[in-house]
Amino acid sequence: MSRLIALFLALAVALGLALLAGRPPAPRPADAPTEAFSAIRALADVGVIARSPHPVGSPENAQVRDYLVLRMNALGLSPEVRPDFGFRRIDRISQPVFLGGAVENVVGVLPGRDRSAPALAIMAHYDSVPNSPGAADDAAGVATALELARILKAGPPPARDVIFVITDGEEAGLLGAQAFFSGDPLARRIGFLVNMEARGGGGLVQMFQTGRHNQGTIDLLQAEARRPTASSLAVLLYSVMPNDTDFTVARGAGVAGLNFAFIGRQFDYHAPSSTAANLDLGSLQHMGDQVTAVALSVARAPSLPEEGPDQVFSHVAGDLLVAYPAVIGWAILLAVAGLLALAVRNARRLGALDAPGVVRGLGAGLYLLLLTGALLHLARRIAAGGGGFLEQRALLARAGVWEVALLLIGLAVLLLAPRLAARGRSRLQASALALAAGAAALPFGWDLAAV
């Protein structure tokens, strides 16, 4: 009984720490110091940009464009509307798809002391999908860029030009970014770029993509970012996913940089509920804190981050981001493998390890994973039916309740595992439970995972 109590206490502490670590910072008020990013100040721009849906080519999008020109003029950025035609080919599906359309990027420049130095670019997109005001995706990014421009303008002149690239047509296929990086003369001046995106209405901001040869970029992130949430694993996973942002185009053009987004509260993603009133101001503040720290450092530095071998990196706690070359990661894995081999050899010498026992242990571990997966999969099929984004919106609407349900299922399997993996009759019960979980998911439609 005491072990069970200790287990629940440990899980409760871990859950509490995870919840605390996942909370965005409190938004700074409108009267925050001039040099500080204020989510409340930025919210005023979000409210105007996300007043209504404004897809590319619509009258509402033209109104947002005109507002951005006024705001950027007031900030001394001398903005220009750059009409162009964006064209893009997508090869990630069974056959190529071609996307194209007229766009109107809004580009402004804050002059630096050395106009010939490689420039820093700050990028976000101002169009939305047709059915959403787009307060998060990407009015939050545009408002962050405007607040950053105010901070830069209020301080000493930057060492290099800072180019604000507010693209159009991102939701239609990255058309504005494609047009800018394929033909705009300013694109050739960019040496480092920070892009802002969102896939949801809240949560901590993730740094999920870098340019190639990112050693200098990660060094910069280590030194400057506030409460960074980033890992090279996320970067690797994103690289094989069929998702793209404007940063994809910049990266393809060989530009170094960082891509930031918050991805929580996904019920609001591309939805009518993505309004300024529903935007998590803590997420907006976290975006501003991250981007401002990095951008000020690059804008004021005498040189840009240097290229170097891609790094293995991960956020540990607070402001601590651990990074090291990939060769060190391989050395660590080899050392672990050597220690495991040594432990196996010693265990066999002592008679504490035999081949049947190893097979049983591996089988028990595999069974535990499969049973947990089957039960969680069954729960999702019961609650949401299909596996698509739209089918699961009911779960996203009550994400907290759903996450608690998944946690309880996982705990139940964990507590049952010792009995289910034991010898004797319990193995029949264990097999029956796993088979029942898979079979129960099949009536919801053909399902390879259930099989």
Explained architecture:
48% of the residues lie in helices and 17% in strands. It has 451 residues and is of the alpha/beta class. It has a 7-stranded mixed beta sheet with strand order 1-2-4-3-5-7-6, sandwiched between helices. It is globular and about 75 Å long. It starts with a helix and ends in a 10-residue tail after the last helix. The model has no long low-confidence stretch (mean pLDDT 89).
Q: Any descriptors?
A:
about 450 residues; alpha/beta; Aminopeptidase; seven-stranded mixed sheet; about 50% helix; about 15% strand; globular
Question: What can be said about this structure in brief?
Answer:
This protein is of the alpha/beta class and about 450 residues long.
Write the layout of secondary structure elements.
Blueprint: H1 2-21, H2 39-49, H3 59-74, E1 80-90, E2 97-110, E3 119-125, H4 135-154, E4 162-167, H5 175-183, E5 190-198, E6 202-210, H6 215-224, H7 232-239, H8 246-252, E7 256-264, H9 281-300, E8 311-317, E9 320-325, H10 326-349, H11 355-384, H12 393-397, H13 399-420, H14 426-441
Parallel strand pairs: 3-4, 3-5, 5-7
Antiparallel strand pairs: 1-2, 2-4, 6-7, 8-9
Helix content: 40-55%
What is the name of the CATH class of the largest domain? Alpha Beta
Number of helices: 14
Poorly predicted ranges = none
Radius of gyration: 25 Å
Question: Would you tell me the overall average pLDDT?
Answer: 89
- The CATH superfamily of the largest domain is known as Zn peptidases
Reported by name, the CATH topology of the largest domain is Aminopeptidase
Record the strand order, biggest sheet: 1-2-4-3-5-7-6
Say how many strands there are: 9
Question: Span from first to last CA?
Answer: 37 Å
CATH architecture assignment of the largest domain: 3-Layer(aba) Sandwich
Kindly name the structural category: alpha/beta
Strand content: 15-25%
Largest sheet: 7 strands, mixed
Indicate how many domains the architecture comprises. 2
| Order of secondary-structure elements | HHHEEEHEHEEHHHEHEEHHHHH
